[in-house]
Structures are given as C-alpha cells and as structure tokens.
C-alpha cells in the first residue's frame, strides 16, 4: 500500500534496556500473530453470493470441472465427494465446511509464521491528540515510558526486509470470505492465497479504533533494522523517573535526535508536548 506523505507512524515503549536499544541501534520487533493479545485475532465467517444451493453448486462445478484433469489428488477427491452428495444443499454444505476448515488451517499457519509489527498512525484527517490518553496508558507505562515518531515513508523504505504496510479496518462484524470467489481466484487466476488470508489479520473490532493501527507484514518474525534517519523525534512521558529522563536526554543528544516531554494539562484531560 502507498503511504501518504502526511502519514506519521508512532510507537509507544515502556522504559527498559531492550527498548532503549531499539532506538539507539534502531530496530523494530516483528511478532507472530499468535502472540497478540486480542482473542478475536484472525477470526472470520464465510458465505457465498448465491441465494440458492443449486446456483452455488453450479458455480463451484464450473470452476472445478475444467481443472479436473490437472487437479491435485485432494481437489479430485473433493470433486468426487461433491458428486456423491444426495442434493445441491448437501453438496454445498460439504464444500463450504471443507473449504472453511482449509482456510482456518492455512490462516493458523500464517499466525505461526508471519511477522507483524504494530504501529499507530496519524494523518491530517485523523490527528492523534484525542487518542493519547489511552495510548500512553496502555503502551507506555502510564506516562512513565516514551513515544517514537517516525517518518513513515523513510521507515518503510529503510527496513532491512521486504514488508507490506496495511491500515487496520475496524468493524462491528468479523471479516467474511466469499468461498466461491476464493476458489476461483486460487484455481483459475493463481492469486496468491496469502493475500486473501492477510485480510483476516487486518480487521479488528470497532472498540480498537482509537489506535488507528497500521501493521507491517513480513515473512519473518524477530528484529528488523532500519535507518536512524527514519526517527523524527522522541517524546518522554512526564511520570518517567528524573534519572531516566536525564539518560533519555543524553542518549537522544548523542543520536542527534530531538527529545520532548508529554505532560498532563491540568485544565482538561489532554497531554501537551513541550521541550524537555
């Protein structure tokens, strides 16, 4: 996905040795989706766009029959079992449940193999200010940690591996997969299945919307280095211990990076960013 020039990425950190190293020797950590804290991560529902089972079965057969001669043994077995069903409804039920299980199995493998780095975004249309209270509370030790602001384009371009960047879609309902369309794309136009399943990792419940999350997808998990020039500034939380603030200021000066302070505005429930 193309990153707009006005897009900013942020990452919130607790204050500890590992996270200091993450900015002094810049790297991002790509986690496996199976390690995420959202219990609904990757769930989905499935459907077809046909009202009647007979229509669905006809569409499925029109895709499978031309490929029968060169199909894999598994696909041939599915074709045979569909043909053995007593009616269209039973055949479609078998196909959908079988395909849904395959989707679940493949999605589970992605959860264990892919690496994802979660960032938070800001654009002119969606400023960050109203989200800061929860972000500092949840991800930066209640204003005892720090926040890094990145030049989004520089960050993506300088990461030491190929990544895909996608914004999270927030919804009241889990994502749905059109099973017949998926079958068509995979068997007739050779669309990479991974693209389909990544959609499952780009949808979260609407309650997470305050995060404006952006995800970077990689084939590998673990550390990925990037250029120090991708860091725009570091903002330290007001409740960070004074000796830690001094250390942060010293480190940022050595890195030639601006460092500022996020402090509570006592007149309202907001933070203000000031010079440290």
TrEMBL record:
Q: Which domain of life is it from?
A: Bacteria
Q: What is this protein called?
A: DUF2971 domain-containing protein
InterPro entries reported in the protein's UniProt record: DUF2971
